[in-house]
Amino acid sequence: MKRCILSVLVGIAISVVPGHAHHSIAAAYDTRQEITIEGVVTQFQFINPHPFVMMDVKNGSATVSWMLELDNRYELVEVGMTSSTLKQGDRIVVTGSPATSGHHSLYTKRLDRPADNFRYEQVGSRPRIRAAR
Question: What is the pTM assigned to this prediction?
Answer without folding.
Answer: 0.79
